[in-house]
Amino acid sequence: MAAPAGRCLWRVLAPRRGWVLPGLDQRLAAAPDVVSAAPPARLYAAAAKTTKRGSQKTKQEETKKKPVTKRRPLMSKPVDDVYLTWYYERPSYDVEVAVGMLKKFQELDFTNPKQYVYINVFLDMALQKKKKVDPFGSIVLLPYRFTDETNKVLVFTENEQEAEIARENGAAVVGGVELIKWILEDEIQVDFYVAVPAIIPKLIPLRNKLRQKYPSTRRNSLGHDIPKMLQLFREGLEYTVEDERVIKTRIARLDMPTEQIVANLKAVIHDICTFKPSAYGPLVQKLVIRSSSSERLLLNLDGLLPQVEKVEEEEEKNAEDDEEKHVQEPVST
Predict the structure, then answer these.
(1) pTM given for the model
(2) pLDDT (tens digit, 9 = 90+) per residue, 163-180?
(3) How far apart are CA 152 and CA 171, in angstroms?
(4) Nearest to 273 by CA among 133, 106, 78, 173
């Protein structure tokens, strides 16, 4: 009885002869055809390259055929107060008009009337033969002060009378060679350094330490007039060239009279223009003015840049004409 039972169990568990998964025979039969139909790998790669080259040529031809869209020329002035800014040229204003607009903006926005007025000066640093003006810095004494802040100035002198004059005119530190060690060790830190010519040979160890602030006649920090130097560096406005062509500085307060703001702006612009010879063209390319809470206004440069005097050129031409006449007179006789 055991044998027949085991035989029946084997028949139930064993797979039936000829039984397969549905659809498997069709897939196995189609597999050889698919493999045989596949092209060689090298031919497939070559065909891909040709199509890429062809597509590049077609793209180039399409770009050539496309018409070049010309940018619409900008219009000069808008008709009303609401307009798209990119359709019009940026307006420029006379400095008096621009300052008046800044004052009006402050009244309409209810902002602080004693906020500062700033200018951004964009420079043309190019010279002839691929040369350019090196980035510079300077300090200028404005005709109208707009802040009570003063700079700390150190005066180098070994003369007791000069030292007393320096103290009376507001010098923060006065001394001689004994100050060199303290400056090198950063125990003395001031904003500017001035000196008299007699002591300048002894200050050579400070040249690398002070760098641009080392006393020199070019920066008006070396001389005999101690009160004048102290006034310039204690009360003056310092500015430097940033990003190789831009000067950003404040020039006044908005609550000052318009005439004083304009006078301060012209003083800064005239000082900037001294760093490039007029023969190479104007140094200032663009000038923008703003207040702490207003938009930027582009200024008209007419009347702001220093006028190049043509008197010397006319005199030279007249001298050349006289020489030619003197040379031609003997020949004619």
Answers:
(1) 0.69
(2) 999 999 999 999 999 999
(3) 7
(4) 133
